[in-house]
Amino acid sequence: MKKRALILGPVAASIKATPIPKVSTGICGLDEILEGGLPNGRTTLAGGGPGSGKTVLGLEFLYRGARAGQPGLFVSLEERAAAVRQNALALGWDLAALEKAGKLVLLDPRLPAEAVVSGDFSLKGFLAILHGQVRALRARRIVIDAVDVLTRVFDDPKRERNEIYALHEWLDEHQLTAILTVKLGEETEPSLRHGFLDFMADCVLRLDQRVTGQVTTRRLRVIKYRGSGFGRNEYPYLIGPGGTSFVPISKVELAHQPLGGRFSSGQSRLDELLGGGFLRAACILVAGTSGTGKTTLAASFARAACARGEKVLYLSFEESESALVGCMLSPGLDLRPALRARKLQIQSVLPEAVGAEEHLLRACQTIAEFAPDHLVLDAISACRRMGSEQTAFDYLTRLVNMCKQRGITCLLVNQTAGLQEQQEITGIGFSSLVDAVLLLRFEEQERTMHRALLVMKARGSNHSHQYHRFRITGHGIEILENGDAGLPERRLA
Amino acid sequence: MKPKTKGAKAAAPAKKAARHRLRLFVAGNEPNSELARRNLAQLITGVLKDNCELEIVDVLQDFKTALALNVLVTPALVVDSAGTRVTIFGTLTDTHKVLAALRLPSAVA
């Protein structure tokens, strides 16, 4: 019998919860979900269907461990070691180098397909092989991919269970931090399907891959974790160059930075209407129908920030970088110097090209690398095309929350569709996150359309409550004094 | 007749070129391995008439051979004869199956 359950000391005078020892996975975002990592010296089960990323997860656990000085053994019962090495290279991991350095061993034993069975047998041979390798390598981590292959030879649920139990005992005895992967699906062995493995393991992860609105996402859920808390939601993750990345989890507690000092919108008259400019770390929404000048206002904002030496990340879901830069030349907003000075970075992606999680991860990675002061998102209305309304909401709240935590100002552009503008202004239902709202619209007067701007909301500011006419000139946006209307709309310089 | 194979290897007398090369993988002296040893010894003296070369590999002492031959279960018998290899899992209790795998008529059983 093992002795590792919670042992309450004889002197339980001051009962203090001691967290169980954990091993960092080194996988981006996973430790947060697992509240520190996998249970040290215990067995974790990673189950999932085909293509859910079980092998990559296991391999990355060993790769990160090996690089951090914890040798690991990867037992591949399905893929050849050479194929594993090659797949790892595609993710940018050089396993061969770690093998040479004695930090990693890849084993690919095969069970003969056409073996004759005569009488009883057990997995002792397998355990002896593991034992020899673990000792030679001084391994601390082990991954068996996939454990269901081992039980295939037994053809008897009871014996399968006994053998898996023996394997678990062995892993426990050697205090190895283990990940056993298991294929889940229609053809899973009955004994594994009925949750036996789930009961045995100390930590159970479920990975899956599903398609919603023609976009594929992968998700992970922690089913159980003995002796530890864990994030209980489903967490989207991506497998890309560098490995697996989990989307930062939506935390319960809000850790937003307070709104900071004022800075110019790039237009002095607009600053006046705002009560002195925008506030740092604010979330600003610019809403209006098509053609009202939202992108021009955003570009003006970005150019002014870059001119002050601040960095702006411009996420464009509507136009390519060259189209955006070209279009903004007409109102005299040359973004090229800012791009050259690497103060401005334009990331242009089609919303439907990848899933919302990938959009979010890309944005996260860029924010981490580029460390912008401001973020422009043009336009949130296009985010619906990432999937559904809910997807867009998740994407935007996570992105805005992340920016608020880092003190990054967000300027979100939202294209509203004409009549419904009052209801639609704040976009996909996250108005509580929005600190300032600018509404742009057309007004008709004497058979002429005029552009008008209203500061609908500006938290912490004594702002104007009037519509102000403005025009787009050859040198940017020009806000007119109320009363001096009727001039020709566009004067190209 | 039971060759006492303590440890790794022990070869049965091979007069000329043996027809079968047998390698029995055991895990120490656990019951199944002991049973396999006994059953194989009977087969060798009976049906095979010593016309074979036997090697007993204890995986607890030599895991590398087991790994090289993909022997993940014990007991297991790897038979090489005339360029073909057959692996038999288990205690070799079912003599008919073993003989069929060795392509021998199941005269005695």
Strand content of chain B: 15-25%
Mean pLDDT of chain A: 84
Q: What is the count of helical runs of chain B?
A: 3
Strand order of the largest sheet of chain B: 2-1-3-4
Helix content of chain A: 25-40%
Low-confidence runs of chain B (pLDDT<50, min 5 residues)? 1-15
Gyration radius of chain B, rounded:
13 Å
Task: Compute the number of strand runs of chain B.
Answer: 4
Name the structural class of chain B: alpha+beta
Strand content of chain A: 25-35%
Low-confidence parts of chain A: 484-493
Secondary-structure topology with pairs:
The complex is a heterodimer of chains A (493) and B (109).
Chain A lengths: L21 E2 L6 H4 L4 E2 L3 E6 L5 H14 L4 E5 L4 H10 L4 H6 L3 E4 L8 E2 L6 H14 L3 E5 L1 H5 L5 H17 L3 E7 L6 H4 L2 H5 L2 E10 L2 E11 L8 E7 L2 E4 L15 E2 L4 H6 L4 E2 L3 E6 L5 H14 L4 E5 L4 H7 L8 H5 L3 E5 L7 H15 L3 E5 L10 H18 L2 E7 L5 H4 L11 E10 L2 E11 L8 E7 L2 E4 L14
Parallel strand pairs in A: 3-8, 3-9, 4-5, 4-7, 7-8, 15-19, 15-20, 16-17, 16-18, 18-19
Antiparallel strand pairs in A: 1-2, 9-10, 10-11, 11-12, 13-14, 20-21, 21-22, 22-23
Helix pairs in contact in A: 14-15
Chain B lengths: L19 E7 L4 H15 L6 E7 L4 H6 L7 E6 L2 E6 L5 H7 L8
Parallel strand pairs in B: 1-2
Antiparallel strand pairs in B: 1-3, 3-4
Characteristics:
heterodimer, A: 493 residues, alpha/beta, nine-stranded mixed β-sheet, 16 helices, B: 109 residues, alpha+beta, four-stranded mixed β-sheet, 3 helices
Describe the structure.
The complex is a heterodimer of chains A (493) and B (109). Chain A has 493 residues and is of the alpha/beta class. Chain A is built from 16 helices and 23 strands. In chain A, strands 5-4-7-8-3-9-10-11-12 form a nine-stranded mixed β-sheet, with helices on both faces. A nine-stranded mixed β-sheet of chain A has the order 17-16-18-19-15-20-21-22-23, with helices on both faces. Chain A is elongated and about 100 Å long. Chain A starts with 21 loop residues before the first strand and ends in a 14-residue tail after the last strand. Residues 484-493 of chain A have low confidence and may be disordered. Chain B has a four-stranded mixed β-sheet with strand order 2-1-3-4. Chain B is α+β, with helices and mostly antiparallel strands. Mean pLDDT of chain B is 80; it is low at 1-15. Chain B is built from three helices and four strands; from the N terminus they run βαβαββα. Chain B has helices spanning 31-45, 63-68, 95-101; strands at residues 20-26, 52-58, 76-81, 84-89. Chains A and B meet through strand 6 and helix 5 of A and helix 1, helix 2, strand 4 and helix 3 of B. Strand 6 of chain A pairs parallel with strand 4 of chain B, so a sheet runs across the interface.
